[in-house]
Amino acid sequence: MSQRSGEPRRFLTDRMLGTLTRYLRFMGYDTMSANSLTPGSTREDTLLLAIAARDGRLLLTRDRELARRGEAQAVYIASEGIMDQIRQMADLELIEPEIRMSRCSLCNTRLRPATVREVRETPYAPRSVRGREFSWCPVCRKLYWMGSHGTRLEQRLKKSRSP
Questions:
Q1: How far apart are CA 103 and CA 26, in angstroms?
Q2: pLDDT at 162
Q3: 110-119: average pLDDT
Q4: Which one of 12, 77, 129, 131 is separated from 41 by 20 to 30 angstroms, measured CA to CA?
Q5: 72-109 burial, b if ≥16 CB within 10 A, otherwise e?
Q6: Which domain, by its residues, includes 74?
Q7: Which H or E run includes 96?
Q8: Residue 21 and residue 71 in one domain
Q9: Residues 10-18: what's their mean pLDDT?
Q10: Same domain, yes or no, for 15 and 84?
Q11: What is the domain count for the chain?
């Protein structure tokens, strides 16, 4: 999960990579999405390049021209399929594909351990809480835990590493 400098890699995704954005967040990567920007700007590509440079983020894009303009600060994501996208990033040694559940998949905020009260008051929390670890997004007020959905994601990521 690290760059050469030892700092965790940070990403910026274009509007065409919403699913990849969520997966990267589930894997613990700080991933900003262009979807968080006001839509409709004719200069959005230039803005994305500026944000990537300013924040030290690697721009991930499905737009060949934008990737070309971004040079070393951008990567063209060749496939539309999420598992192919993850495989490409792993092959480029940009990520280690494993679930970490340390970031909110919706807003990218770092998760913290959930309190007993937060778990108890969340209507979608599992009935059986024994042996489970829960995390909480203080911004979205969303509860996370490794359940069947997380297990399926983990299995898909393992398959993505297979040739």
A1: 6
A2: 58
A3: 96
A4: 77
A5: ebbbbbeeeeeeebbbbbeeeebbbbebebbbbbeebb
A6: 10-91
A7: none
A8: yes
A9: 96
A10: yes
A11: 2
Q: Would you state the structure tokens that stand for residue 47, as one six-digit string?
A: 């803005």
Lookup: tokens for 162: 């297979």
**What is the mean predicted confidence (pLDDT) over 38-45?**
81
55 and 119 part of one domain: no
User: Could you give the CA distance from residue 133 to residue 120 in angstroms, rounded to a whole number?
Assistant: 13
With tokens 């968080």, the residue in question is: 36
Q: Rounded to whole angstroms, how far apart are CA atoms 117 and 39?
A: 38
The sign of the CA dihedral 57, 17, 136, 134 is negative
What's the pLDDT score for residue 47? 93
**Contact at 8 Å (CB) between 51 and 64?**
no
φ, ψ of residue 118 in degrees (nearest 5): -60, -40
Structure confidence at residue 150 (pLDDT)? 76
Q: What DSSP character marks residue 147?
A: S
The answer for residues whose C-beta is within 8 angstroms of residue 54's C-beta and 6 or more apart is: none
Label residue 131 exposed, middle or buried (CB < 10 Å: 0-12, 13-18, 19+).
exposed
Q: CA-CA-CA-CA torsion for 11, 32, 85, 9, nearest 10 degrees?
A: 20
Q: What are the pLDDT digits (tens) for 46-78?
A: 999 999 999 999 999 999 999 999 999 999 999
